[in-house]
Structure formats: C-alpha cells, structure tokens
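Still learning. Any example?
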Amino acid sequence: MVFLDHDGLLDCNEAALRMLGLASPEIVLGRRLDDFAPTLQPHEQSTREYVTAHVEAALADGQSRFECQLKCSDGSLFVADIRLHRIQIGGGQVAHAVLRDITVRWENEQRLRTLKDAIQASLHTLTYIDGVTQLPNRESFHEQANQAINRAIEISRPVAMASVAINDLSNINNSLGHDAGNTVLQEVARRLSATIHESDIVARVSGNVFGILFDGCTEECAEHSARDLLAAMAPVIRVGDHEINVGVAIGLSLFGRDGRDLWDLLQNSETAMYRAKAAGTDTYQFFSGEMYTIALERLVLESRMRHALEHHEFVVHYQPLVSTVDERIVGTEALVRWQHPELGLIGPDRFIPLAEQSGLIIPLGEWVLVTACRQMRVWRDAGLPSIELSVNLSPRQFHKPNLVEMVAKALSVSGLEPKLLVLELTEGALMDHTDATLNTLGELRAMGVRLAVDDFGTGYSSLTYLKRFPLNKLKVDRSFVQDIANSPDGVVIAQAIVDLGRNLRLEVVAEGIETIGELDALRSYGCEFLQGFYFSRPVPAADFEVLLRAQSDAP
C-alpha cells in the first residue's frame, strides 16, 4: 500500500518496498509513482501522463483503477493492478493505493491475445487468400470485382475482364511434382501482379486460371495490357535444375459489350480464353458472339463422353487413406479415369468440368458409386479387411432430388454397409440451397452414410456450416499441406484446420502428402488420417488389392 497526493508519495508499507526492491521508506517519500516505472507503458502511452490522469481522477472522483508496468530497483519490470481510493487525512485529501503484482496473469493475457490475432489472421487467409500464390482467391475476387463494376456503373467508367490460363500445368505437376507446379503458380502470380496497375484486381480463381479486372480500361487498353502480360510470361521459370517455358492463354471481355454483370464478364472471358488456348500458346482473344467453334468442340467431346459411358471406357482407380499412427490402410477414395481407346488414360481434369456442365456427371457419378461399392463387396468376400470407401459427389449430383434413393440403391445392390461409405462434398455444394442441403444431409446420415467436406479451406467464407451440417470429416486441401515446408503461414493454417476439426469432433484427413516432412508435420499437429503420392498414387482395383493383401499378410 502507498499513500500519495498531487505532489508525490507520502508513505508506504513494507510490502510496497519489497515489491519495488527498495530498502527504506525514505527512498520513496516525495517521489512520484511514475518515477518507479519505465518512460512508456506497453501500449506506448507516456507513463507520466497515464499515471497522473488516474491519480487526478481518484482525487477528484473518489476512486480509480488501472494496470501499470513498474520497475524494480534492479531494473526488472512487473505489472501491477493499482486501485486508488480518496481518503481524508488531517483535513486534506490523499489517495490510498493498493498495488497487486499481476505479471503472470498479464503475460498470459498477452500470449492469448497474440494467439487470437494469429488465429484471426489464419481464418482471414483461409477465407480470402489463395494458399499457394497469396493472391486473393475466387471468393475475394468476386467480392472486389463486383464492387469495382458497381462503381463503374455509377460513373460510366470502362471495365475489362481477363481470364489467364497456364497451359500444361497438370503436365508439370505429373512430371516434376506438385512442388514444381506450385513454384510455377507463384512466379506467374508475381509477374501478373507486377504487370497490372494498382487499381486493377488479380486473383487465382481456379487451379490454373487467374482472373484480372482492369479498372477504367477500354478495348485498346485491354489489348495493350494483354500484350504486356504475354511479354511478362515470356522469360523461363527456373524450378530446381529445370527451365520451364510457361505458355499462357488470355481471354478478354468488355463491360457493356460482352456483359453487364460479373458472371457474364467472367463466363465470356473464360470462353475467349478457351478459344485462345485452341489457337495456340502465348496468345489472347477477345470474346465474340461468333465463337461457335468452341461450342462445336464441346459438343464433340460431350458426344465422345456419352459414347465412352455406353461402351464402358471409364474405369475406377483407388487411392489409399492411411492412419497417421501406423500408416496402415483404413480406407480408399474412388477416382474415375477415362480409358480412351486412342488417347490412353485421360485424367479427370480434362472431362469432369464438361461432364458437370453438360449433366453427364449424373449418370457417370452414379456408375462410379455403384462400381466402387461393388468392388468393396468383392474385396470383403475375398476375406480382405473392411475399410471405408470415399466417393466424391459433384454439386449437380448432390442437388438431384433422387440422390438419397440413388445412394440407397448402390448400397443395396452391392451389399456394402452404409457406415463404410463416405460421401465427399465440396464447400460450394454445401453452401447452395441451405434448407434442402440440411434435409439431404440429414437423410444420408439417417441411412448411416458418413459425410466429408473435400478441399476444405479453398471455397466459401462462412464456417458456420461446420456447426450446422451433420458432417463427419474435413479433408485439408493439398495446397495447405504443400505450403507447410515453404511458409510459416502454411504451418499456421494447416494447424488451424486440424485444431478446428478436432475441436468440432470431426475426423481430419490431409490430402496431397508427398514427402516425409509433410507426413511428420501433419502427424505432429494431431491429424488423424493421410492421403497422397507418398503412400500411393490412385491405382486400378487389381493393384489396390495387392496393397490390401500385403497389409493383411504383414505380421
């Protein structure tokens, strides 16, 4: 305890002397309280002004309370909770102060505040920032671009939209690995950002596509900007010992002429981008209503896909899901491939988007589900261990009215236990038509089927659906996993997703594990299940059976 007035300290007890590391009251008397404190407080306020204000408030109003960092005689710092009360002594008014050392509590609060800030920053990154390029993601781009278009409408300002696609990114991933692909994405993002104007907006809107909104840009300006972008992409990109020539295709659309809202501009710039890709690398095209060739090519591919479905050209490959604890196979994901009689094995990135757009995804998805469920029954009848089966549902599949009946039929004809089936959904599918989504998810869960969110963290800004929807699993997108070794932010994001899932009592699966470093990191975060090339690529059913048998025969 100390007693003080406007001029300084009048008296103190032994406890106050010990707290300040002083030997006798004479050292204290007559000095100001702020003499025993650093010049500035942790919040950067002047200590003298801060303490004086509270002392004056106590003398004027009767009481005051504040926290203040003080300094001992040996130079060490501590934080005190100080309560001031006005009392009468000898006809005059003085302040009676009670000081309590709260250093431990204060330090804990600072650590919690720092952790909270880090979590908030991580959630912001998850919501608005692409994990690989650190550019705005699709959701952020849509939000910013809509605002720019609304401003343009108000002041009659021209706007142009560009869709920029990296050619052959999938080949780079397949031949050199996803780390190489990410390096290419990051360098392309850097070059795009360095080329556009400050008022323009650039974002990564999908796997190999960037979106750019040119603010205040006419057709002539857009053409000039496209040429600048192509020139910026011309130098090779070094990835380890490799030099990669990255070709890009640019599609352009103009506000007013090619659309009067964001969706039309995006769709038309993407249409022009596909036309540019068909014309060759390193080129650009403006959208034109006469782009019938693109529609024709789409019709041809769609026709071939229908033929492929009828003639059993599609096959299902299986990729293991392993337990983090012992790396044993506990499940598998069914992934469709197109075994074209002339072109060979075609990856899903080439036909799934068109299947989704054309509606072919409905019969194709049903075939994959039934085929995979039957294969699981074959393995079980062969005496192999029961493992769970994960099957992706596209947004169009999920919102079909007969989805629940289709899933029930697949389980019935295969004899697969519902608890062994996991249906993987995208965040986009979950966020559309919320009431119907809740009903469908509830019916599937009532059937005994389990539900997972695929590529978590790359889609929508709202996290409330994790609480509202009856989900079982989160699948951490590979972009966050692959960023662990390269970025402290990647570590924080991956940890945040794992912690989020565990706190919500959801199983967490990390996708895209390719290195022992990623495996060890995810294991240390407490991630329960892993999937990726480190364990196995997606393989035909016969090859997957070999993996299962080898595990069953192991001691």
